[in-house]
Amino acid sequence: MAEAEGTAERSFLSCLGGGCLVPVGARGVAHDGKLTLSGFVGHPDGEPSIRTSVEGSMSQAAELGVALAHLALAQGAREILDAVRKDEVLP
Asked: What is the C-alpha to C-alpha distance for residues 44 and 1, in angstroms, rounded to an integer?
């Protein structure tokens, strides 16, 4: 269960280029052979933000992460991420 949760979360973050400086998060919860993956992409100013989720089989954890990333992008995550990265100051 924990492996499927972690795989889905990492897949989502990887697809969006998430890291320490990008406001992206994911949470997978496995129960009875199903996996629910929730994702968040937020602007540091608090607005706008995207919250979305998908559900599927635990055996398709990586694919669920990719699907959630595409859903978030379709809902406006690309614009948020582009704006954040434009203002990024690396240490």
From this structure: 32
Measured distance CA(83)–CA(89) in Å, rounded:
13
CB-based contact 9:29 (threshold 8 Å): no
Reported pTM: 0.86
- Determine what percent of the chain falls in helix, strand and coil, rounding each to the nearest 5: 50, 30, 25
Torsion of CA 79, 47, 17, 78, to 10 degrees: -20
Which pLDDT belongs to residue 22? 73
Q: How many residues does the chain have?
A: 91
Beta bridge partners of 26: 39
The label of the residue with tokens 């992460």 reads: 65
